[in-house]
Every structure is written in C-alpha cells, then in structure tokens.
Specification:
By secondary structure, the chain is mainly beta. The chain is built from three helices and 42 strands.
Length: 685
C-alpha cells in the first residue's frame, strides 16, 4: 500500500535520478517505487503537502529561476525583488522579507541559510520539491513556512553531454555545458557550467541607461562513488558569481494610482560570490540506514544602492557581507518492513557573519559607517516515530529540540566626509540564546482504492536575532516567532492513474511574527507583531488523457491577517492583510509531445498561464496589486542530437507590479517583466 500511495503522488511526473534528499523517489524498471530520502522510512506514510516540479516542466515552461515557480506551486510566492541581494519566499502566507528566511532551501542536501543564495541557475536541474507548511521537526530553525529541495542529476543513473546556446530580447545571451559520465558501475562524475547576460529591461531616466543589467556564471562538479552495495559517497561543489545592476524602483503615486518613472542619480548594483560544497556518506543494510551530510558555504557580496530613489544625494548605502557556514548532520533510521518505523538525527551548525554598512549622505557631507559581527551556532536533536495501527491507518509523532547561540558586536559612527572626523553613535555587544521544542502529529488513512486522507498538527519556530543596522538601542534585536499549523487533506487517483488530484485546507496560528519595515538611511528592520493568522486551501490536478499529452492545474487561496499588531500609537495594523501574500495563485499548463513528427524525431508544444493577486505591499494596505495573469509558450523541435527551442514569456505584455514596499519617505514599486522572447539550440551527445 505504501508503494501505491507513492505512485499516486508521482505517477504523472518525472523523478530525479536517484536524488538523496527529502521526499524523493525513484521509479525502477519493475514498477517498484523505492524510497531514497534519508529523512523518509520505507513504510513511513507521514504525509505533507508537496509539489514536485520535474526537469520536463522546467524545460517546457522555460523556468530558469526559483522566482518563476510563483503560482506554479500552490500558495508559493517569490517576488521579483530588485536584485539577488535578498530573495523573499512566502508559502501559505508565511515568509520573511529581509534576512533570515522562513523557508528552508537545500541543493543536493546542502543547506542555504542566507536568502541571497536562493536565486540560483536552474539549468540541468533534475527536479525541485516544495514542501508546504512547517517542517521544523526534521529541518529545524528555518522551516516555519516550508522547504525547497533542489536536486541535480546523478551520473550513476543519468549519462549525457549537452551544449546549449541561446539568445533573446534585451540582448539576453545564455551558454550552458554539462557532462554526466559513468566510468564504471561504481563511480561517476559530473561537470556543468553556465553563463548568462542581459542588457536590462528597465530604464533609469536620470542616468539615461538601463537599471537592471546582469552578468552571471556558475560551475558545478560532482563525484559519485559506490565502493560496495551498502555504501554510497557523494561530493558536490558549486561556485557562482553574479554582477548586476539592481533596484529598478520607482515612486508610486497613490492619488493618481500610477507608477512613476525610474529616476535616481546613482547607479545601484549587487555583486555576489557563492561557494557551496557538500559531502554525503550513506550506509544501508536490511535493518537500518545511516546518513552523514557535511556542508560548507562561503558567501561574499557587495551591495550599493541609491536608497532614496531620487535625483538627490540623500542616501546612498554600501553593504559588504561575508558569511562562512559549516554544518554537520547525522541521521539514523529504520530500514525494514516493520509496522513500527523510526528516524532520529543530530544536527550542528556554526556561522560567522561579518558585515559593513555605510550610509552616505553626500549632499550633507556625512556618512554613518557600521560594523556588525554576528556569529551563530546551533545544535539540534530530533526523533520521529510512525506506527501502522491497522491496515491503511497509521500515525506519526515527532519532536525536535533546537538550541541556538547568537552574538552581535555592533559599532556605528558618524563620519564627516570632508574632514574625516568621526564620532561614535551606537555601540553594543550582546548575546542571545534560543531554545525550542517543535512537535508534530499526523494521522492518515489509505483506502484499498488508493485514496489517502490525512490530518496533521505541526509546530513551527524561527529564532530571534539582531538587526543589521539600528538607529536606536531598542531596534537592535527581535524575538523568536512561533506557529501552529493545522491541516487536513486528501490525495486521489482515477482512470488507472491517468488523473490525480490533491486537495488540502489549512489554518496557521502565528505568534510574535517577525514583521519587516523600511527606514530611509537604515534599510530593513525587523520587529515583532503580536499575533497573525493564515488560512486557505490548495488544489493540484494532473491529467494525461493521451500519450504525450499532459495537463496540470494548481490553485491556492490564502487569507492572512494581523490579529494584533499595534506598531506605535499612530500605527495600528490590527485587522489588515499581511503584505507580500497573494490571495490567489493559479497555474494552468499543458504540453503535447509528438514523436516522430514528419521529418523530425520529436516536436513538443507547451503553453502555460500563471496568475497572482491580490497582493498588498505594506502593512498599511494602501498600495496593492490586483489579480493579474501572464501567458508563456514554447515550441521544441528535435532532430537527432539537435533541439531547437522558441519561447516567449508574458505574451500578452501584461503590466503589473512585481514588488512594492513603503519606506519612511513614501511608496515604491518595481514593474513586472514585459514581453520577452528568444530561441536556443542545444546538442545532446
């Protein structure tokens, strides 16, 4: 019955090539579904709302970044922020605008805790899984909203060499190369590289130049070794660099309901270098499975932003960020067909963050340089047990204990740019300790007709921390936030597996929510709102009426409000809708593949529509984006080893706001990407 429900969830979707992370499966030749995730037991029926985006959908819909999964996954929103300096992610209305993501992000098991590392190149990705709802029992501190797992190909299961070049509107140039080689049944390696350039889509009227040009490149290597049938070793390393103009923000005129021109006097940019390395060792026998995941990540970035977004030199901020993160996780689990299944683990992490921020007021001849050293360390233990009570009825209970120690050495000065004289403004040296238990309870029933019904209660938690910049001593830190997630759902399969449908409803009680607001000259600051909630529903349908023809429909509804948030005597947001949370997400996609097709070996035609809205951009709910929809399409022609693609995005040239915010000086927003199109040629050896 366990195999049947896995087939129910995945029968209409391709799977990654023996990936080794959460909720991943492999369909082998005999039709058997083998669990390969080290946080999932063979008979563990623990249910979570999950959406899989496989390599076919990524290619057919020309999805090149995580941001483009917005609405493709129900109740998933990743706004097209001004640059890659920060990548807010919201799932079911839960998220974080600034530092400290509420969503866990993993690439081949390597955690990415800094949200500026989320926006990665998706070329040659095997699959992406999005787990919706708190995953704190197994994942801890950064999973109060959910988890994103990205998997690359495994050369022991997938062998291919590909070269691809492409060109599109706005001088969009792409070049990609990848090789996956299996030297023998026990050893394989992979190497991949990519380059991307775009002249920019948005024009700065004052500078008479594009505001959002970008150059970026990435390289990946992987070594895969199976010395015996019981041992599996993997080493993956990625190096990426991006250099982009950013922040094509323009003032929003509330009275005229109009977004003005981009018009500020200093070019703004963001440069980012990321190095990520992970080593995975796994041992499996007929009774237990042991997994070790070691990770190191280095991030170095430089941000320069005209933060007043005017032609005056009121505020130009430079931000240098360095991060070094080490983590180690050990997981031990049962690996048999017993009615009782268990999984237990130990996780440790240390992170060193060094940050320098300087706000320059050139017209006033002053600056405020700020140094902030913020080391963190955490330790966690977790356990989860599942028991098959009777036939298809099973229950799961889990708990995690997290401990985190954080420190901040903060020094802020006032500098005279003319004389070089400086005077101290704010100094503090603080430490904070956070402890939390995050339990989980799930009950599910699988019928003989392969219908699954489930109910779950899950605790979410995110630790507090220190703000990057503060004007007053009381702004220097913020408290932890907590949530309880209540969920019921069903998964069904019809027409011999050709039609699947999943539906769930949820309610999230969110306490001490970490709310973000923007102050001119300081940037984003975090404070705690007393109480908020989010409730909604999700629907996912996949239908394959004919061979080569596939339809997908995904819909999400979220209603998220502040139940109690009085920021000041004059600012009471109680009853307002939470910002950055679309009320509706909708995606309808279809693809048809014909092979052979006349003189061609294969022709694939794909089209999709995504819709989002209504979205409020700030706590006061003054500015919002109504529901809007964009249409994408792609045609792929294959002959032998050559494939020629033609693609278009936002074919109706829909005009919308992709992102908005309110600062102490007014409302600002960024336009959505206009109509774009292009072509590419790839050769597969």
């Amino acid at each position: 019955m366990f195999n049947e429900i896995l087939l129910l969830s995945l029968s209409l979707n391709a799977t990654p090539d023996t990936p080794v992370d959460t909720t991943t499966y492999k369909k082998v030749d005999l039709g058997e579904v083998v669990v390969t995730d080290y946080k999932q037991n063979r008979r563990n029926l623990t249910t979570t709302a999950m959406s899989r985006v496989d390599s076919r959908l990524l290619q057919d819909q020309q999805v090149v970044s995580i941001k483009e999964l917005s609405a493709v996954v129900p109740n998933f929103f990743m706004p097209d922020y001004g640059s890659r300096a920060n990548t807010p992610v919201y799932i079911r209305g839960i998220g974080a605008k600034s530092k400290g993501s509420a969503v866990g992000f993993y690439v081949d098991g390597v955690p990415h805790y800094e949200s500026s590392a989320f926006d990665i190149d998706l070329s040659d990705i095997a699959a992406i899984d999005v787990l919706r709802g708190p995953q704190g029992t197994l994942y801890g501190r950064n999973a109060i909203a959910g988890i994103i797992n990205v998997y690359t190909h495994n050369p022991l299961e997938y062998q291919n060499t590909r070269v691809k070049v492409g060109y599109g509107k706005y001088n969009d140039v792409t070049a990609q190369m990848s090789n996956y080689t299996k030297l023998n049944p026990h050893f394989g390696f992979s190497v991949a590289g990519s380059y991307h350039h775009n002249d920019g889509m948005f024009y700065n009227a004052y500078l008479k130049d594009k505001a959002d040009d970008i150059d970026e490149g990435e390289g990946r290597i992987g070594l895969y070794w199976k010395p015996t049938d019981r041992w599996y070793l993997r080493l993956n390393s990625t190096l990426s660099y991006s250099d982009q103009g950013g922040y094509p923000y323009a003032p929003y005129n509330v009275e005229r309901n109009r977004l003005e021109d981009i018009n500020y006097n200093r070019y703004s940019l963001f440069r980012r270098l990321i190095s990520s390395t992970g080593f995975n060792a796994r041992y499996t026998n007929d009774r237990i499975s042991f997994n070790s995941q070691s990770c190191f990540q280095y991030i170095k970035s430089h941000q320069a932003i005209d933060q007043d977004f005017t032609i005056e030199d009121k505020s130009f901020v430079e931000n240098n960020y360095h991060e070094r993160m080490y983590s180690q996780e050990f997981t031990l689990k049962s690996n048999n067909d017993s009615r009782y299944q268990w999984i237990t683990g130990l996780f440790g992490m240390t992170m060193q963050v060094d940050q320098f921020i300087q706000n320059n007021a050139f017209s006033a001849g002053t600056a405020t340089p700020t140094d902030n050293v913020n080391p963190k360390s955490s330790l966690a233990f977790y356990h989860q047990s599942s028991y098959n009570i009777w036939r298809g009825l099973s229950a799961t209970a889990g708990v995690r204990f997290d401990y985190e120690h954080s420190k901040s050495d903060y020094h802020r000065e006032k500098l005279n740019l003319g004389t070089g004289a400086s005077s101290p403004m704010l100094d503090f040296h603080s430490t904070a300790n956070f402890r939390q238990f995050t339990p989980k309870f799930t009950l599910q029933y699988l019928t003989t007709h392969r219908f699954l019904y489930y109910a779950s209660i899950t605790r979410g938690y995110k630790p507090g921390g220190f703000n990057e910049s503060a004007k007053e001593a009381n702004e220097r830190s913020y408290d932890p936030e907590y949530s309880w997630n209540y969920e019921v759902g069903a998964r069904t399969v019809f027409l011999n597996g050709r039609l699947t449908a999943e539906f769930d409803i949820f309610y999230i009680d969110w306490r001490d929510m970490q709310a973000t607001y923007t102050i001119l000259g300081q940037g984003n600051l975090i404070t705690n709102a007393a109480h908020a909630n989010s409730k909604g529903a999700e629907l996912a349908v996949a239908y394959r009426p004919l061979k080569g023809l596939l339809f997908n429909l995904n819909y999400g509804y979220t209603y998220a409000t502040y139940l109690d948030y009085k920021k000041s005597e004059k600012q009471d947001y109680t009853g307002n809708r939470l910002p950055m949370v679309p009320s509706h997400t909708l995606a309808a996609n279809g693809s048809y593949t014909l092979e052979p097709a006349g003189c061609l070996d294969r022709v694939t035609i794909s089209a999709g529509m995504t819709g989002l809205g209504r979205i409020y951009w700030a706590d006061d709910n003054v500015v919002s984006q109504n529901f809007y929809a964009t249409v994408n399409a792609k045609v792929s022609l294959t002959k032998g080893i050559v494939t020629w693609d033609f693609w278009g995005k936002n074919l109706t040239d829909t005009r919308y706001m992709a992102y908005g915010f309110k600062s102490s000086k007014g409302n600002y927003a960024q336009k959505g990407k206009p109509l774009t199109f292009g072509t590419s040629v790839s050769v597969n050896f």
